[in-house]
Amino acid sequence: MKIAIITDQHFGARKNSKLFHDYFLKFYNDIFFPTLEKEGITTIIDMGDTFDSRKGIDFSALTWAKNNYYDRLKNMGCKVHTIVGNHTAYYKNTNEVNAVDLLLREYENVIVYSEVTSIEIYGLSILLVPWINSENEKKSITLISSSNSPVCMGHLELNGFQVTHGHVMEHGMDAKIYNRFEKVYSGHYHKRSNNGKIFYLGNPYEMFWNDCKDERGFHIFDTETLEHTPVNNPYSIFYKIFYNDTPYQTFDMREYKDKIVKLIVQEKTDQIQFEKFVDKLYTSGINDLKIVENFDFNGWKNVDDEVESEDTMSILNRYIEEAEVNLDKSIVQKMMQEIYQEACELI
């Protein structure tokens, strides 16, 4: 039998941005719900961080989530197994107070797990592991180490996996504790990565510039074969345009409506033509435009990778790595990642 796995949906993200919620909704309307119906899927496992802010919920964001997601799942007869992630736990040292439990009690089809729990779906035993913190760490490790379930699904912070483009987690737990399982699936890191046994499945859609061009979506899991199949989200909200004296008259800008665009100027010999290109971009209805100029592109093997390195987290990580300080740089990088994510919520 087939079930759906989705994680890190972050309802209410970017300060409950309408732009982002409209972008999210296109994925649910065009990809997620049609796939559930086509495949006859009635069981969903949500691996955490369903809501974005652990401090509170915007009423309009909650209304959006209920109208566009939870009500539809209920009407479709779908059961949702939801684990607590770090964004849905109010306190950093306990899962006891959490958003999914408090906000979704009206849905009998939604089951919330704040502690390590073994469940059975279509005859398959699955160990669910919510966010591990100082209060539940000892008990969680004991239950993980003694589990007989072949599959584990959780919201795990393990070292050795990519968090975002160019940033590998060095500070998390040792992945060896999960060696007893045949397959392990996790949320928390938004970028897909795996070591052959442990699979970080990534979130459904782009949320920050670091997500640009990464594959996003959700997964279908077969409880009989233990195989998972990605269902990719074809939609993007972040776009890069490389300008090389590009003629504005023939450049098709229709796809950039309501998008966040970075215009990277590689060659510009005619200022007037460039300004007309920019004017046409604005006329197309883009949401936001950032112009990047004055780069020396000579000798670059991969222009896109070099430009990507100018993203905020890449700059911070590189600066910390190169700094001559007697500190555990992985811890400093993790702290900066958390601060950066919190800052983005204020944008």
Written account of the structure:
- The protein is an alpha/beta fold and 347 residues long.
- It folds into two domains: 2-232, Metallo-dependent phosphatases (Purple Acid Phosphatase, chain A, domain 2); 238-345.
- The chain has nine helices and 17 strands.
- It has helices at residues 13-16, 18-39, 59-75, 99-103, 137-146, 271-283, 303-308, 312-322, 329-345, and strands spanning 2-6, 43-46, 79-83, 110-113, 117-121, 124-129, 151-154, 162-164, 167-168, 183-186, 193-194, 198-200, 217-222, 228-232, 238-244, 260-267, 288-292.
- The strands form four sheets. Strands 4-3-2-1-13-14 form a six-stranded mixed beta sheet. A six-stranded mixed beta sheet has the order 5-6-7-10-12-11, covered by helices on one side.
- Helix 8 packs antiparallel against helix 9.
- The longest helix is centred in the first third of the chain and has 22 residues, at 18-39.
Instruction: Output the CATH topology of the largest domain.
Output: Purple Acid Phosphatase, chain A, domain 2
Assembly context of the chains = single chain
The number of helices is 9
The CATH class name of the largest domain reads Alpha Beta
Q: Determine the mean pLDDT.
A: 90
Q: Stretches where pLDDT falls below 50 for ≥5 residues? A: 299-310
The CATH H-level superfamily of the largest domain is Metallo-dependent phosphatases
Strand content: 15-25%
- Name the helix and strand elements from N-terminus to C-terminus, one letter apiece: EHHEHEHEEEHEEEEEEEEEEHEHHH
Biggest sheet architecture:
6 strands, mixed
Span of the ends, CA to CA: 42 Å
- Specify Rg, calculated over alpha carbons: 22 Å
Q: How many β-strand runs? A: 17
CATH 2nd-level architecture of the largest domain? 4-Layer Sandwich
Which word captures the global form?
globular
The percent of residues in helical segments reads: 25-40%
Structural class: alpha/beta
Strand order of the largest sheet: 4-3-2-1-13-14
